[in-house]
Structure formats: structure tokens, C-alpha cells
Amino acid sequence: MDFAAEYAAKLTTADEAVQCIHSGDWIDYGFGLGIVDTLDKALAKRMPQLEDVKIRGAILLKRPAIFDIEDAPAHFCWNSWHMSGIERKACTEDIAYYSPIRYSELPSYCLYEIDDIQVAMFRVAPMDQFGYFNFGPNASHQYAILKRADKVIVEVNTNMPRCLGGWGTGVHISNVDMIVESDNAPLETIPKGGEPSEVDQKVAELIVNEIPDGACLQLGIGGMPNAVGALIAKSDLKHLGVHTEMYVDSFVDMAKAGKIDGSKKNLDPGRQVYAFGQGSKEMYDYLNDNPECMMAPVDYTNDPRTISQIDNFISINNTVDIDLFGQVSAESSGIRQISGAGGQLDFVLGAYLSKGGKSFICCSSTFTNKKGQTFSRILPVLHPGSAVTDTRANTHYVVTEYGMVNLKGKSTWERAEGLISIAHPDFRQQLIEEAEKMHIWRKHNAHVNV
């Protein structure tokens, strides 16, 4: 097969490619770094002629051009699997809406429950000698989209890293309808951040003390997981493994410090396994053609049955709030959507079922709003409308800068006692009073230091 000839035959301009999009269509825009850019700009010019276009995507790292057309809600809506700050803002503009789902279920949902995908568009790396366009660090659920889309358009960007893996890492030219060569804009990045805060450092120290040599790590995004990674990089830990949803810069730091070799993993030994990655250019360069890193679809990486097979699995994630019953809201504050369910619950479940495994939900004890008001993240009950990301039956370890508690199997009064003991001292008495009203406080609890 002459792939070069097929490439030339399918090559077109972005303006020509988006002519296949019509009013009422369902469009897949890609995921994370795979979100299209040149095609987005072309569709922004065409969109005023269209109505009721429904677009799916997630984790925007920059604002799409279509969001800024005149009277955008009259022409399309954005349906997000997992929200970034850009999508949160778009919700207030009646452009974007959240689509709740466990991330691991997304491929099956796309394969068996979505009725229509008229057009799927992906940003990809240049075609290789075998006719494949690599997805970059975006295996996610893309293989399922390919099977369901009526038309597939790839947008080639020479800056996209070529990320190796087992399967679901790219698309063959024979399954592509149109090829658009982009202007090769630099890939969007997430700043690595500076030194961890004092609170992040205290939480990280508590968690790292619980990690044994040879453990397998999953880190979420945020200051605290980053602090854990930084502390591990400076520690005496060795032979660590990686099996994670999102690949972040902390893994690069740990690997370059010699802490990660995957030699003790009893599944995919020697490989750092992930579903997608977002971070710095240094991280993208590290992932490029790196045989130690294995990208795989999210229904493999996030499946609790997969995770539980790996001994000493350590899952570390953030939360927005937690209540005295142990209910974790890691994605919303009241009805305000912040991020998404993602894979947190899957990793909480999988880590607990792992031999020697532990799940850590971490947060600062308080936060301060824009008005300078300070609030406790440990609440009597979650705010009305808050999504329960992890149920109280699943929550394992909870960590703040004031300590760590294990909630697994604990009664309601034991949970209240434990969580109040790691709340900020300024809020402990108030939490005790609320616990008494809810009949989850015993006189025995009186020894808690307020």
C-alpha cells in the first residue's frame, strides 16, 4: 500500500474539512492535548451558519475559537466529560455543560450507547512509515470514538509527541477520511508550579511515610500530589512503579531521580502505564518514543479489576470537601461543577482491593475565598447539590496538614471523631456541635483536642 499517495488523496484544508459538519450534528472534538486547533478556527468561521451543533470534549487547556463567536449558545453547545477552568467559565456563559460519567466507562458508553457521532476530529502526530497517526498522550477513549464516527478528520501537528503503548494509541490512515495539516502551534502546557506550600508539604510528608519500597503509584493533579512526587524524588524510596490515569510532571521528576523502575510491578512490569498526560514541554519530550512509558485506553488503566491486581498500589487524590460521614466531593461545590468524576472512585476501589494497597484522599483543612473569608473543607454534611465522588463506604485514608485518619469500616461516631481531629482547630468545636445534633457524637469523643 502506498501510504504517501493515500495521504495526498485525503489531504485537504481545514475550511474544506468542516464543510461536512451540519446543523444538528454530534461532533467529537478530541480530548485534552488531542483537542483540535486549526479545525476549531475553521469551524468558528462556519458555525454562524449552523444551529444545534452538539460537541463533546474534555479538559480544555485553551479557549476554543468557537466559544467566542457571536451568540454562541444559539449555534452549538459543548458537552464536557471533565471540566477545566475554561469549561467552568463557559458554563456561566450557557455554552458548556457537564456530562457525568465514570471515566473508565467512557469507551463502553461510546461503543454501545451513543446513537450518533457524525464527525470525529483529533489532533495527532505525523503519520509514521506504517500509516499510523499517533494520538500523542491521549489514548483515553479514542479507539471507541473511531469505531462509531461516520467521518474521521485528523489534524497533524509536528509538535505532538509519539507516545508508545499496547493498543488504542493511534489511527491508521485507512480509517481516516480527511487529513488537515495544522500550523504546528506549540502544544498547550500546565506549569510545573513552584515550591510546595507549607500545608502541601505537611500532607505529603504524612503520605510518603506510608509508601513502601516497590509500591505502584497513581497521582491526581494538584499541589498536594505534586508535593508528594517532589518529596519522593528526594527520598530513599526505590523500585517504584506507575499505573495512573493522568501522567504528570511529578512522575518525570521521580523517574529522573532513579525512584521509578517498575521492577516490582506484578502487572506490566517495567512500564509506566497511563491513559493521558498533561504537563510541561519537558514531560512531553520525556514521553516521546519512551519505551518505559505505556499509554493505554482508560477502560484498562482505570478498571478497578486491573488496579487491584497490582500489589502495594498507592492512590493519591485531592478533594474539594469531605463531610463527617466520609462522603467525598472532589468535583463540585454545591451545584457549581469544578472538574469531574474522572477516575477517582475507580482508583479508591482498586487501591483498597490491592494486596497492601492504600487510597489517600487529601486536602487542606481550610480554604480562603476571594473576600478573605476562611472556611473548613471538613463539613458536617456536604453542601446541598454537591456531587458525591467517593461514597462513605469507599473512603479509605483522609489526610490534612493536621493528620491522617483511616475511615474504612468505621462507625459514624468514629468517623466524626477522626475527621474532626484533623480539621482546623478553629472549626473543631463547631463541627462537634453539629455532630451532636446529627447524633454521631459520643461522650467518649470528648478527648478530641479542640
Explain the overall architecture.
This protein is α/β, with parallel strands linked by helices and 450 residues long. The protein has 15 helices and 27 strands. It has an 8-stranded parallel sheet. Helix 5 (106-112) packs parallel to helix 6, helix 7 packs across helix 8 and helix 14 (412-421) packs antiparallel against helix 15 (425-437).
Features:
single chain; 450 residues; alpha/beta; Glutaconate Coenzyme A-transferase; 2 domains; eight-stranded parallel beta sheet; eight-stranded mixed beta sheet; 15 helices; 27 strands; 27% helix; globular
CATH topology of the largest domain: Glutaconate Coenzyme A-transferase
Given helix and strand content, the structural type is: alpha/beta
Helix content: 25-40%
- Total discrete domains: 2
Write the CATH homologous superfamily of the largest domain: Acetyl-CoA hydrolase/transferase C-terminal domain
Total count of helical runs of at least 4 residues:
15
Catalytic activity: butanoate + acetyl-CoA = butanoyl-CoA + acetate
GO molecular function, one term: acetate CoA-transferase activity
Pfam families: AcetylCoA_hyd_C, AcetylCoA_hydro
Pathway: Lipid metabolism; butanoate metabolism
